[in-house]
Each structure stands twice: as structure tokens, then as C-alpha cells.
Amino acid sequence: MQEEKVNGWEPKIIAFLCNWCSYAGADLAGVSRLQYPPNTRIIRVPCSSRISPLLILKSLQRGADGVLVSGCHPGDCHYLSGNYVARRKFAILNNLLEYLGIEKGRVHFAWVSAAEGKRFAELITEITEEVRALGPAKELVKKLD
Amino acid sequence: MLNTSVMIRDTAKKLLDQKRVDLIIGFETGTLPLRSTPCFVRTSEEAEKLIWNASCENNLARYLWGRKEKVGIVAKGCDTRSIISLIKEKQVAREQVLIIGIPCHGMIDRRKIEAKLDGKEILEADEATERVILKGSDFTETINKAEFLHNSCNTCSYRNPVIYDVLIGDKVEEKQGIDEYGEVKEFEAQPADRRWQSFTNEVSKCIRCYACRNACPLCYCQECFVDSSQPQWIGKTTNLSDTSMFHIIRAFHTAGRCVDCGACDRACPMGIDIRKLTKKIEKDVKELFHYQAGVNLEDMPPLAAFSLDDPQQFIR
Amino acid sequence: MKEMKIAKSELARFLDSLISEYKVFAPVKQGGFIAFQEIHSGSEVLLDYVNSKKPPKEIFFPQSEVLFNYRLGGEGLGIEEPTFEDKPMVIFGIRPCDARSLVIFDNIFNSQEYKDVYYTAKRERTLVMAIGCNQPSSTCFCTSLGGGPFSTDGSDLLLIDIDQEYVVQAVTDRGKQLVKKHSQFREAGRRSLSLMRKVTQRASTLIKSKVETGETKKKLDGMFEDPFWDWLHEKCLGCAVCTYLCPTCHCFDIADETLDQMGRRVRIWDTCSFPLFTLEASGVNPRPTGKERMRQRVMHKFKYFVDNHNVAACVGCGRCIKDCPVNLDIRTVLNSILNR
Amino acid sequence: MKNPYIPLAMTAEKIVIETDDKNIKTFSLSFLNKAEESSFNYLPGQFAQLSVLGEGEAPFGIASSPTQPGALEFTVNKVGVLTTALHNLEEGAIIGIRGPLGNCFPLELFKGKNIVIVGGGFAFTTLRSLLKYILYHENRSQFSNVTVIYGARRPGLLLYKDEFKQWEARPDLGLYLTVDQADEGWRGKVGVVPNVIKEVAPSPENAYAVVCGPPIMIKFTLPVLRQLGFPPQRIILSLEMKMKCGIGKCGRCNIGNKYVCQAGPVFTLAQLNELSSEY
User: Fold this and answer.
1) C175 and C237 part of one domain
2) Tens digits of per-residue pLDDT, B114-131?
3) CA contacts within 13 A on the Cβ side of C171
4) Residue C291 sits in the same domain as residue C177
5) To the nearest whole angstrom, how far is the Cα of C24 from the nearest Cα of chain A?
6) In a domain, C211, yes or no
7) Rounded mean pLDDT, D26-43
8) Global confidence as pTM
9) Residue A3's pLDDT band (boundaries 50, 70, 90)?
């Protein structure tokens, strides 16, 4: 881990953002010229409920050091209840991953609204630092051995 | 046991003769000691082969989906819970199944017995109410059934059928004071790296035979995620990352549906502790959403529902 | 060559001397099961066992095997031609049924037209040392398929346990040379040989499980359209336990796996039990249901393989019987075929 | 010992869109290492395994004829993972090839005979190879009358349109193109292939019929040919099955005890009648 840091390791984070709130929040952060670390690759999805656990695990498998899933705040879902349904799914998944021993701090969930550009920038900064502190992902990473 | 077998046969014959069902799914004597095998009975003559004993371990609800005919099914407590899950998920219509409920004392785990015998082969097993007499080429041993039940039977609190159309015999007393999630709690208490180590140790045994998936009454997807080629979610080899992902996702897909019948666990030829995962999810579903799968026909499946105040401490 | 013997007390030392020259695979206990693994000391070997959970076919035909590695984005295909190890190998302690399965495998992988170099490279440099079965299991039915607890098919050497020592039958020249080379082998005396005869006679009577298979192929010749298949598969879960644990099942899939620019083409065990096995990209599947797939498994083993190679693709090891999650017993299937 | 699993590298020299739905393309491939060209000796009816590394490998009938050395041609319908990957390639891309594999049309038996070629839709690929082989000036005299009946659902879905234009002009070829649904400029026949065969009624005398097409066309064509008097030994078919290894080892493409990749893909109807009907 130390070695990789020396070699200029930077965490790679995949962020699945819902189109209506969180992506707009990210957009606002950009338009507002807010600075945040460039380690995150954003994937826009229609709704947080679109995020299947498969997408999260696949990201980790293919070398993401961290994953963020973000949608509208409860009550604000464009599809009325998508984020509520997603919340249950994520609760189970989050517990399961932790139970199996996947480090806490690899997979993150958040609610970010379209107005929260600043919050988005802060969130990404926090998550980036947390993932950086963990070092490169180890569990689930697929290697061709 | 014998009595139960006779009652099942009589019931099956009656149902078939009266044309109330086209098919009875039950058990017949298997070819190995302590091994009964699923059977499909369409005439009252065939019904003669139906039996009941402590090795009727398969969850027959597995055979319900995709059928057109009216089916009578011999079902233990856990099987009836799976049937409820299937009815709720509209894979089977309630009117299409006639449930022949059997109160269950638990099913014998052959592997536990084999482990105790340390490699000696059982050639004959005589089952009585509480004991089984095991005979090998150079030994005879009597064991207490209760000590050699499947883990899922040990933690079962639904030994009686939850729904049924016909009940065979008398209901049994449900176990009291069982520590249903003892194993899960024990695992939770270990440090994270140990947990990951022990999980990967288990799944490294996986040979991707999919017996767990195919034995599961709820794994009825038209296309399983492991079989999808566009996109291809996981690789086809026994690469540890791929097998890990397979087991995590398969377990996740049982969330709010798994009744802990243990079918996956029993089917696994490599002895992978699959219930370690499913039981955890079952526990979480109960604690977080106050839901237990397959205990009634009314409650909404938890992942198809929500509550405004569902826990969300993990969300920033 | 005269019958030879080796004392059990000398076995570990013999294996140790083999290890210096060969890669030695032998039965060991692993995760609660018996497995054939490379050993690094003669003392690791487990001698008191019935048979391994997975067949030793995986030494020659592993579940996942890299055919070649490649690098994308360069000149040409970027394929790195595989190289094959040349250190000779020994499988010690394989059962005669599994040794026979290798001969069956040879029909496929060592055929005239296309040699499967991945298989043959390992097979040709491997010496097979079988141990006969003094205690066959109740699910063993090798004698019904032309084998037996002391069959020498596929073995270079066969060891027969006579309590304190093994009588050693050298079957091939390769086997004979090995025996000559190692001082632990001594000529078997009259006493040892008479003990051996007792043991082999006794064990042959222990194989109680018998299936008449003489007429199976003839019956199957006319059974493709038989309604028999309509019901046979009914309880089958369609999993791969029977085929993956079968020492003669050899079907495989080929897939590419790429990470970034590096990748590999792998072959992976596959099975006729899975619908995907024959599903075409167009959506057409010539074996769309359990019926066709079960028929394929049985026909392949007991008719097609006999048609093509004059031997059934089954050695009667009983693994599929022991581990089928629903007790679909191949012996019952064979008996039902004869009764059609 | 040659490793039969290692593909050779070819360059996609030319990629042509064949049909108006753009779902079928023809790839002209040439060996990257010219020395390997001579090792690839094939005859019409054979197939090869094409690879796009990272995506996989799949079998395709060879659509070109050995009489035009240089390029190997494959016509590919976009249906699955590998065919999509092939369609996404641009000219100049590198494609792997293993082959030639399988048997070929029984050219020796065809000599001196009348040949009736019946094709449907996108399955004209190896028939094109055969037709080109027969029409090749050095070969043409070895065969007697040649009749081609080829149909598609509509004109835009016919393959090899430019070549058919040239072939139409040939006096030594009876060519009948047909579509289920004609459009304005269509000058050929209208109707399904089996009906056109009835109408054309090629004589079974001293003749072989070679049939490739979708299962439904085959199903209705075979009775028509039988009625016209073609015996099963003189009706030739080429089969498609899912394949992986292409060399009779991976175990999936069998019909009865015959592996399509080795004993086939070309069979006579008489041979197929003796095998199980699992295809």
C-alpha cells in the first residue's frame, strides 16, 4: 500500500448519481466552480433505485477503490418512491458487505439534492479522503492469476 | 413414520381418484441409506410408493413453478413457507396447489453422521421415532436423531405447515428458546479480516455447479445473472472474485424471500456454508423491516415495499 | 517382471525420493474432503480413504485452464503462446476406476486429428500409480463397466494393500523402470502373493452394486424418441454436480477474460445439464428442456461414446450417486433402460 | 505439435454492409503474416472460428471461394456478443482465425452433375463459396447445369447484390431470386423459396440439391425437393450448431454420435435421417 502511494496511487471512485437530484447537485458544484478531488468517475442513472448491487460489486471487482451511490432526499424522488425502495435494498447490501468483511468505507450511500452543490463537493472530498486512507481495494478485486 | 407414509398414500390416492389434483409431488425411498428422493405420482397405483421419514430433506416447492396442472404437494413447514413466497411472487396460484402439510421433526444431516463415523460407510439405516440404527460392514451404532439434524432444522421455529389443505397427523410442538441467529452473531463478532478470510475460504471450494441455485425454490429467474452474456456480470471460471460475487449476489437475491429451508446448503456437494450468508440477510430483514418470509400470505415482500421511517443511518 | 512389493513403512521415503524428481500428486485431506494435491513430503499422503471428492481428471483437465494470454492494443493479436512444463509428474494413490477414466479421456484429447496439447502435455509426462480398492464403497459399480477394484487399465503401476506392505504390479514399461530404479521395491515372496490373492478375491465380492450394461447401448440405439425421457428428468435440478464430479465428463466452454489491456482465453468445465450449453446466439436451443439435456447426458455416456470409441464414458466410480442433491441414481436409470 | 486452439492473425481489409438493416456485414480478411496464407487450404462448405480477443470466438462459414486466393470472406449477422464485437470493428482491425474446420460440400460427387443451389436469407454464405467455386472458369466445365434459387424476406435483405447482378448475366446459370415482399424496383420473383422451387421444378435427373437457410425454409423445402424426385442421398444440407472448440472436443455440437464441427457441417439428408432430430 505504502509502495503504491509512493508510486502515485490515487483512489478511483465510481459514483452512481441519480439524474434528478444528485447529478444536478454535481452539476451545480461544477457550475459554481467548487473544488473537489478529481478521483471520482460519475455515472448518471435515472434513479438511485436503478442501482443493482451487481453494479456496485462489479465496480469493486473491476478495481474501483470506492463506490458512491447517491439519490434524492427522502420525499424528493422524481418517481415518488424510488429512493425509498432503494434505501431498503441498500440497507441489506450495506450490512451484508460489512458482515462479509469488506472494509467499511468502500461503499457509500448519500442523499444529495439538486441545490446541494456545496454539499456534493464536500461529500466527494470526504469520501475521497476516506478511501485514500483505506488504500487500494483488496477484497473482491479481480486479478488474472 | 410408517403411519405418516400410509396417511400420505391414502390422501394421495383419494386426491388423484377424485381428480382434485393431476399430480402429487412427494418422496419415495431413495437408493442410499438415509436418502429419500423426490417422486412424481400421477396415478393411485403409483401413490403406493410415497413415503415419509427423516430423510425427506428436499424442498419440493422447487418443482412447483412453470407447471400447468393442478398439483398436490407434500410439504414440511419450511416447504409451505417457500410456497407462500412463491404465491406472493405470483409464480404459483394458490388454487393450483393442494398442500398436503406434514408436521416435521427435523431432517437428518447425513454429513454430520458421516463426520461422526469418520469415514466408515453406512450400509443400512433403520429409522425409529427418535433414533436411527446405523449398520456398516463392521459396526452397528444407534444415534439420536435430534443430535444430527440439519442446521436449518435446529434453528427452525416453523416445524408445522404454515398453510395447508390437508394436514397429515398431529401438529408437533414448536421449539422454544432457540437461538436462531447464534451462528450469525458469532460470525459478526469476529474481526473484519477474519470474516473475509473465512468467507473466501468457503467460496474457494465452489465448483460453480449451481446446485445451490437450482435447489432453491425461489431461484426461478428466466435468466440468472450468472448466465447473462450481455452484460456479462461475472466470469465463468472459479476465480475467487467471481465466485465471491456469485455467492454474495445470489444470497442478496433471496432477501426477504428466503425461508431458511437449507436446500442450498444441502445441495452443495462441496459443503459450502451458504446459510452463513442467507441467514444473515434473513436476520437483517427481520430486524430492519420486521418481516419474516413465508409466514403469511398478506405481508408485502419487504423489498417491494418501504416505510417512510426505514433505518437510514448508513446513508450520508 | 516378477511381482514386487514395498513396505508401508518405506512408502514415505519412496515418495520423498520421487518428489525430488517428479511433481507428485496424492490424496490429502482438504477442507473436509479428500483431494488430489501436489505433495511436498511423503508424509502428507492419506492412505486410508475411499476416493476423492473431485475426480483427479482436474490434474490434466483443470476446471479453469488458460489456453493463452494476450495483450490488446499492440501489433497483431498479441498472443503469447503457452509453454508447457516438462517436469515429469506422478499421480500416486489414484483409484483404478479413475485411472481407467484417463484412458477414456485419451479418446477425446489425444485423438488422431487434433491433439489437445494442454491435456497431452500433462498426460504424457505423468506416471500413474494406482492403489487397488480393498474397501470399495456401496456406490462403486466399476465391475459393471469393465473395470474392477484391481483393474490395471490406465495405470503404470498398481499397488495392492496387503496390510503391512503393498504388492506392486508393474503394468507398463514406464512402471517397470520406476520400480527398478527405487530400492524400496523388493521382490514379493510367496506369502505376500498369497495375501494379495486373498485381498483381491475378497474385494471383488465386496462390489455388490451391479448393473447389467451389456445390452444398454443396443437398447439406447432405438430409444431416442422413447417416452422414457419425458419423465426421467423430472426430479433433476439441472445442476452440474454429476457432470463436474464425473471422472469421464470432459465437455468445456471457452471464454475470454480481459482486465485493462491484458487478457487470457480460458477453457472452463461446462455441462450438458445447463441450458446455456447449446443455446445459440439467435435464441434457438436444440436442447431446450431438461428432457433433452438428460437424454444427452445418458446417451453421450452409454451410446454415442460407445459408437465412437467402443467404450462407455462411465467407470462406475459412484461420485454422481453420492452427491446428487436429489438422489437421481444413474444405476436406477441404467436399470430402467434395460427394462424398456 | 501444433496447438489447435491458437488463432492466427488476420487484418480486416474491407468491411461491407450487405443489407439495408445494416445487420449483416461481409468481412474480407487477409493474413497478417502472408506465410500463413498457404497453410489455410479450404474448400466450399468449410467454416472457421473467428476471434475478437477479449470478446470471444464463434464459428462462421467461409463465404469466399478458394478460387480467389488472397482474401477470406465471412458474412456475419449481428446477433450475439461476438458478432456485435465484429460489427463494431473498423477496417484495419485484427481478427483471429482458426481453421479451416469441418467438412466441405462433396465436390467430387458433384462433378458432371446438375447442381441446384437453394438458399434463404443470410444463409447464402457457404453457398456463395460453392457457387463461385463452380462458376470459376477453370472449374465450370466439370459441372453440368447450375440452378440457383435464393430468397429473402425483402430485396434489401438479399446478400451479395452486386455479384448477383453479374451472375444474372451469365448464360450458364439459371438464377431465380425471390422475395416474400417486393418493393418498387423489384424485377425478380415474389414468393417463398419452396414455392419458387415448385415453379422452377428443377429436374432431379443426374442432379444434387444443396440447401441452406433458416429452419422454417428447410422444413418446407425438403418435401418439395423429395416430391420433385430428389433422393435423400442427393440433398445436401449445411447445419449450424453452437460450437466452442470446433475440433470435436468441447462436446456440445453433437447430433447423435456425430459432431457437427467434425462430421459436418455438411450432411446429406439421408445421413441426417439416420441421426436423431436434435438440431
Assistant:
1) no
2) 989 987 899 999 999 899
3) 18
4) no
5) 22
6) no
7) 92
8) 0.94
9) very low
